[in-house]
Design goal:
Helix content is about 40%, strand content about 20%. It contains six helices and six strands. Helix 1 links the parallel strand 1 and strand 2. The radius of gyration is 16 Å and the shape is globular. It has a six-stranded parallel sheet with strand order 2-1-3-4-5-6, sandwiched between helices.
Length: about 160
């Protein structure tokens, strides 16, 4: 496998043990190279500037700057880096906000390692990826959004 086929990745999460576990998991994959780690939003921006990764695994809730604060800056300055959100729990508003701000995918931290790897590869290839469980939650919520839609044909306000 040539270097051009390698997916260069940065992991951003404030939980050190979680980051270390992801690094160990991803180290087994010959097509993925973890080039950097970050424990807060400021470190994310530094890592992106230093390593220019293909994919960023981004936790939404971190100290100093959270993922939602970082996303607009990533979109503005690192347009080639694709962002895959790794969230601790389902929050409909966070899903929509992160996708609106440029994330290419959204997963809960409860996914299997196989699904994480599929998501990384898909996002790297330019596809969008929303975990099935997250999509299921969103589809369950859609009927409840009906009261937010005007009877005059206006669009639903999902945020």
């Amino acid at each position: 496998m040539g270097r051009k086929d390698l997916i260069r990745l940065v992991i951003a999460d404030d939980h050190r043990l979680f980051r270390e576990g992801l690094v160990e998991l991803l180290r087994r994959e010959e097509a993925i190279e973890v080039v950097g780690e970050a424990a807060n939003g400021r470190e994310v921006l530094k890592a992106l500037e230093e390593f220019h990764p293909d994919v960023l695994l981004l936790d939404l809730f971190m100290p100093e700057m959270d993922g939602l604060d970082v996303l607009p800056q990533i979109r503005e300055h690192n347009s080639s880096t694709k962002v895959l959100i790794l969230a601790g729990y389902f929050d409909q508003e966070m899903v929509f906000r992160s996708l609106w701000e440029g994330a290419r995918g959204y997963l809960q931290k409860s996914v299997s390692s196989a699904e994480l790897l599929k998501a990384i590869r898909a996002v790297h290839a330019g596809e969008a990826w929303i975990e099935r469980g997250v999509m299921g939650h969103l589809l369950e919520e859609l009927p409840r959004q009906e009261n937010r839609v005007s009877k005059k044909g206006q669009s639903a306000q999902l945020l």
